[in-house]
UniProtKB/TrEMBL annotation, chain A:
<keyword id="KW-1133">Transmembrane helix</keyword>
<dbReference type="Pfam" id="PF02653">
    <property type="entry name" value="BPD_transp_2"/>
</dbReference>
<dbReference type="GO" id="GO:0022857">
    <property type="term" value="F:transmembrane transporter activity"/>
</dbReference>
<keyword id="KW-1003">Cell membrane</keyword>
<feature type="transmembrane region" description="Helical">
    <location>
        <begin position="12"/>
        <end position="31"/>
    </location>
</feature>
<dbReference type="GO" id="GO:0005886">
    <property type="term" value="C:plasma membrane"/>
</dbReference>
<feature type="transmembrane region" description="Helical">
    <location>
        <begin position="169"/>
        <end position="193"/>
    </location>
</feature>
<feature type="transmembrane region" description="Helical">
    <location>
        <begin position="100"/>
        <end position="119"/>
    </location>
</feature>
<keyword id="KW-0472">Membrane</keyword>
UniProtKB/TrEMBL annotation, chain B:
<keyword id="KW-0547">Nucleotide-binding</keyword>
<dbReference type="InterPro" id="IPR003439">
    <property type="entry name" value="ABC_transporter-like_ATP-bd"/>
</dbReference>
<keyword id="KW-0472">Membrane</keyword>
<keyword id="KW-1278">Translocase</keyword>
<keyword id="KW-0813">Transport</keyword>
<dbReference type="InterPro" id="IPR017871">
    <property type="entry name" value="ABC_transporter-like_CS"/>
</dbReference>
<dbReference type="GO" id="GO:0016887">
    <property type="term" value="F:ATP hydrolysis activity"/>
</dbReference>
<dbReference type="Pfam" id="PF00005">
    <property type="entry name" value="ABC_tran"/>
</dbReference>
<dbReference type="InterPro" id="IPR050107">
    <property type="entry name" value="ABC_carbohydrate_import_ATPase"/>
</dbReference>
Length: 354, 513
């Protein structure tokens, strides 16, 4: 192993990116047209573009989830929040006289976002003020939230016909799907908020040792509260995309199991479930891996019954490859390098450009 | 001491971590039936040597021989199965499990796969009796004092038919009586033929119990000496590798004049401040430039009183005035904004953020005070961090290392730096010199003197009376969660008198406030 390669190999994004590359290559071999992108009507079309567009909601949910997990928590309610926010937005639009009016759409978005913030605050209060364990606190809303979404839609699937709203999921901007820009914008915003200010370090500090952080003068409870609100806001925007994709709101199925995919994306990205250090760029790569996997499963005509199993195998492989203990045991460099070899690299820069 | 062959031989041990060379070509021998003290400053490699021995870390070079066999343990469990048991500096027990469960965890006596709980309790009781400890073995470990927990950890270690017992600073949280009790147990085990490796920073304890001494410095072996042939001064010189002028200068320092700093408005004045179940209401003034020593036994309410000063716990009665202005200290951040800093005695649970780097740990309190919207510019961070790494001689001097890779004493210095960076007007130091070596101790004591000369008020808590008397203008004595006396630290006050006050608690009338 040459000295030149070492920093690349030990970079924490190396293995996730390698897995992503392997999947793309495998797809291309199986289906040579996989990487083909064509221009149609001034828009770009093709499988890679689809993967980017479809991973946008997962990236959004993953961003919020990353922050929650960094504080040592977890948010199981994001799927339900997607459904509720989508339902509220669609309900408001469906009741309007002119569904294509920008004012109507923006009012709908604001209402839904507001509701999501309230739900996020509910989670935050349960965890930070009352002190319920995060997995239980958010489980409440995960279950109850589906009921809440049904209540909003009155058990029906609300179908709308609104051009501006559909654009959130299917629209284009500068030849690329608008959803990509929304996810990218959110990622840049969260990255700037956490890495250009001291917020990121403070969140990592709270996740690393909450009591010690409090004694260092950090308002730990307030930080914990905040991340659940941010997570709910991210989930709301993801909910808009999901419902806009199909121009309808289904309280039962919108955002179903997205929380699990989001947690996976965060873990694949290198953030520990124990809290502490978090990596936004890692989460984004993790989300792309998961979406590529889903697309691959469809493209390879793997039957839906076995698709989940296939997905599970790949995810286990990714997690194992990344685990330092596993690599030390089976890797070529198995000299038992100690795990805490955290690369102290200019993290800030990558997060922002990712 | 027997003159048989060593039970344990370590030869040419080297171990490096990213950015740190922890051990370099170290030899170490341990004979059956001896107490062998391993001495050295913080970061000298004592803990690393122990962890290498017990398999917590792999070794880069060198061999370990136990009995006649060469061994390389893959972890503490395997080591203890082979007869090498360790009791660590920070008690490693499961606080929510019972005493008996903790002693037998992982090796409960079983019948047909089911744990025989009656047998567990009976054996646990038996073991503790051997240590002269009569406690309820079904109560959770957390309900006992640190000292008792330490004894439980030792009981757990000696149960495993130990040939080698490693005690890594077992006495740092024990009071004098408990230390004597521990020593009695150690002598008993030694006479049974167990080899005891003993790490401590208390020199008098080394001379009280150790048969031989091995000294490490900066990860290398300085030498191995019979205790009788190594006078105390020579030992300290071998440990820190330089003349003892720093320490001596502090020793020679005249008593500090209370009159010089007292007068005018106190920086912090509390009256009848108290918290139910923690500390009885007390009244205390601290002036700028004044060092107030808080003396008392473990559990006497020293820490509890200090926490009220910092808002770490909320007082449920009493008043606080800062600079003469009535105020309330309801949270740490409020205290920090008033210019108060608090260095907790519990470094691991309440101090360091292990994942974050040395730099981040240092600037944390300052950043918290500024608020997250105003990050400290990177250049300023680097300046501050470099300055304090140098001033406190933190090793290794790498600000980007995760702080958990540092030794305990250096972590303590990082915490001290965290508060010094905030330039507090009152710094509360809760056992800042516990578990750190004599060189660093002298440095910290010197620092306290310097800071107070510069106008900073210091509330200094320590179990070591000598230290309190050396540094303080005023000594406050705590007993049974009550402030029993405030003594002007003049010629009439000495360790005996403070000790008497702690013992009798009857010197209220002599309080000079």
């Amino acid at each position: 192993m040459s000295e030149r390669l070492k920093p690349i190999l030990s970079h924490r994004l190396f293995w996730p990116l390698a897995v992503l590359a392997v999947m793309v290559v495998a797809n291309t071999i199986y289906r040579p047209g996989f990487l083909a992108v064509e221009v149609n009507n001034g828009h770009l079309y093709g499988t890679p573009i689809d993967i980017l567009r479809l991973s946008a909601p997962l990236i959004l949910v993953g961003l919020g989830m990353t922050l929650v997990i960094a504080t040592g928590g977890i948010d199981l309610s994001v799927g339900s929040i997607c459904a509720i926010s989508g339902a509220i937005a669609c309900l408001h639009i469906s009741e309007a006289s002119d569904q294509n009016s920008l004012v109507t759409v923006f009012t709908a978005l604001a209402m839904a976002l507001g509701a999501a913030l309230v739900l996020g605050a509910w989670n935050g209060v349960l965890v930070s003020v009352i002190g319920i364990q995060p997995i239980i606190a958010t489980l409440i809303l995960m279950v109850a939230g589906r009921g809440l979404a049904q209540l909003v839609t009155e058990g029906q699937i609300i179908t709308i016909n609104s051009g501006p709203y559909r654009a959130i999921g299917l629209g284009h901007f500068l030849t690329l799907p608008l959803a990509i820009f929304i996810a990218l914008g959110a990622a840049l915003l969260v990255a700037a908020l956490t890495r250009r200010t001291a917020l990121g370090m403070i969140i990592e500090s709270v996740g690393g040792n909450r009591e010690a952080s409090r004694l260092a003068g950090i308002r730990s409870s307030r930080m914990v509260f905040l991340v659940y609100v941010v997570s709910a806001a991210c989930a709301a925007v993801a909910g808009f995309m999901m419902t806009a994709n199909v121009s309808s709101a289904d309280g039962n199925n919108a955002g179903l199991w997205v929380e699990l995919d989001a947690i996976l994306a965060v873990v694949i990205g290198g953030t520990s479930l124990a809290g502490g250090r978090f990596y936004l760029s890692g989460t984004i790569v993790g989300a792309l891996i998961i979406q590529t996997l889903t697309t691959t499963v469809y493209a390879m005509n793997i039957s839906p019954q076995t698709a989940l199993l296939f997905k599970a195998v790949v995810v286990i492989a990714v997690c194992l490859i990344q685990a330092p203990a596993f690599r030390a045991k089976f890797g070529r460099r198995g000299r038992g390098t100690p795990p805490p070899a955290a690369p102290a690299q200019p993290r800030q820069k990558e997060e922002v450009t990712a | 001491m027997t003159d048989s062959r060593p039970v344990l031989t370590m030869t040419g041990i080297s171990k490096s971590f990213p950015g740190v060379r922890a051990l370099h070509n170290v030899d170490f021998r341990l004979y059956p039936g001896e107490v062998h003290a391993l001495m050295g400053e913080n970061g000298a490699g004592k803990s690393t040597l122990i962890k290498v021995l017990t398999g917590v870390y792999g070794i880069d070079e060198g061999t370990i021989t136990l009995g006649d066999e060469q061994v390389a343990f893959s972890g503490p469990m395997q080591a203890s199965a082979a007869g090498v048991s360790t009791v660590y500096q920070e008690v490693n027990l499961c606080p929510n499990l019972s005493v008996a469960e903790n002693i037998f965890i992982g090796r409960e006596p079983r019948r047909l796969g089911a744990v025989r709980w009656g047998e567990v309790r009976r054996q646990a009781r038996q073991l503790l009796t051997r240590l002269d400890l009569d406690i309820d073995v079904t109560a959770p470990v957390a309900s006992y004092s640190l000292a008792v927990q330490q004894m439980v950890a030792i009981a757990r270690a000696i149960d495993v038919q130990a040939r080698v017992l490693i005690l890594d600073e077992p006495t740092s949280s024990l009071d004098a009586g408990e230390v004597a009790q521990l020593f009695r147990v150690m002598r008993q085990l030694r006479d049974e033929g167990i080899a005891i490796l003993f790490v401590t920073h208390f020199l008098d304890q080394v001379y009280g119990i150790a048969d031989r001494i091995t000294v490490l410095r900066n990860g290398t072996l300085v030498g191995e000496y019979p205790t009788a042939e190594l006078p105390q001064l020579a030992l300290v010189e071998k440990m820190i590798g330089k003349e003892l002028d720093v320490l001596e200068r502090i020793e020679e320092q005249p008593r500090r004049e209370l009159a010089a700093v007292e007068g005018g408005t106190p920086f912090v004045a509390v009256s009848e401040l108290g918290r139910k179940g923690a500390v009885a209401p007390f009244t205390l003034n601290i002036h700028a430039g004044e060092v107030v020593g808080l003396a008392g036994l473990l559990g006497s309410g020293r820490t509890e009183a200090a926490r009220l000063f910092f808002g770490a716990d909320r007082a449920d009665r009493g008043e606080v005035a800062v600079n003469g202005t009535p105020t309330s200290l309801r949270s740490p951040i409020q205290a920090i904004e008033q210019g108060i800093g608090f260095c907790s005695e519990n470094r691991r649970a309440e101090g360091i953020i292990p994942d974050l780097t040395v730099r981040e740990n240092m600037i944390l309190a300052m950043q918290a005070a500024r608020g997250w919207l105003r990050p400290i510019p990177r250049r300023r961070q680097d300046e501050l961090v470099e300055q304090y790494i140098k001033a406190l001689s933190i090793r290794p001097a790498n600000p980007d290392l995760p702080v958990r890779n540092l030794s305990g004493g250096n972590q303590q210095k990082v915490l001290l730096a965290r508060w010094l960076i905030t330039e507090p007007r009152l710094l509360i130091l809760d056992e800042p010199t516990r578990g750190i070596d004599i060189g660093a101790k002298a440095e910290i004591q010197k620092l306290v003197v310097q800071l107070s000369d510069g106008g900073m008020a210091v509330l200094f808590i320590s179990a070591e009376l000598e230290e309190v008397l050396r540094l303080s203008h005023k000594v406050v004595v705590m007993r049974d969660r009550e402030m029993v006396a405030q003594l002007d630290n003049d010629d009439t006050v000495d360790a005996d008198r403070v000790m008497q006050t702690i013992a009798s608690g009857s010197q209220r009338e002599e309080a000079n406030q």
